[in-house]
# Entry
Amino acid sequence: MISRREFVKSSVLGTAVAVATRTPLFGDAAAPTSDAEPRFGANYVPRKDWFYSWLDWDQQAIADDLSGVAELGLDHIRAHCIWPFFQPGINTVSDRALSNLHSLLDAADKAGLDVEVTVLNGWMSGLEFIPAWVAPLAYPFSDQRAGNMFTGPETIEGEKLLFRRIVEAVGTHRRFLGFDIGNELDVLMQIPRCNPASINDGDTWATEMLRYADEIAPNRFHVNGISHAPWWNDFGFSREQIATTGHASVLHSYLSQEDHDWVLSRSDPALLHLIEYEVELAYAYQTDLSRRVWVEETNISTEYMEPMFRNLLATGKVWGITWWSSHDNQVEHDLGLLDLQNRPKPIGKKFAELVAEFRRTPSAIAPRKTALVIPDQGLSTKPWPADWKYATPYMNLINRGVSSAIVLASRSKDKDYLRARGITELIQSPG
# Structure
């Protein structure tokens, strides 16, 4: 009798899809070299009970989900802890949640998937998950910094306890890729009476948490899973910080409704080169030219997926592409690669076909001898949503047939830097 996996490979996805290897692709190595092939994965969203599944664990359902992800030919997942489920008290970490996390990594191992563990998830899919012990809570007259997750010393020590306990539980697991310290934590800085923090506060906190992650889990892949906002605005974390700490610069690339309306009023290139622009923007702030950019979240239509991914990979700067999300769900609606019966959707089939192709034939790197010069700060004239003040001239260059790099004004006269990047022509951005 033909196995389910063999059936899916032959009749649903065709011969183009390779089943994920059972050997860890990352293991105990540090961040990959600049010439490593890009990786492809998915943000794991359990189809049964969403992330509430941490409270009502079903190991077989989890195993089936991850088998379905592997059958698409993917090599990793990003797994999301829910902070109050894992740490209901400042000195209390749930043994059951840690056991469930270990079981998830065991299931991932059987499926041949590495796992990036995203820890301080106080913000998920439009919902706020802040533990009760994280102040200021409902007391506007209290010390706003005392229990703030970014600035409160005792609160930060409580956060570190959770990281230590997770390392004790899964730190030596061969599928533990590393820590993402939290999901889009810059959003929590915006919520009224939540955890207000300045850019300097955010930088200080993230630098320390990533340093601590390296201390307790060395030679793993640790990042800060910010939203797209800090790249486009001077907000949350500085671009200099998020481009130089952790093992990769992280992008969550989506069109806001305002962006969507603006972009769809134009045709190519704005729609097809958005992620490419964001990768080049992130790279401009990096000081290590071998450092890669991780497109940690993105979701686009089947129609535009292929050209956008080709443009993205042509930068030669990508560590990996991780789709949002693995499965459809009552909360995540229809954003998944797989449906509620673990069957590949049309968008999942397309993603799998492209992954197989990109692995067979890596994308050619587009030379970028021309660079758009932008200011180091003040990239948007409004705090939210960001405008396209500097993205527009980048797209205009594409309309002229120019694959452009981006260079900061502060580095535009550094001949050694420009030579190292192969840049021979600079174009000053307007404004």
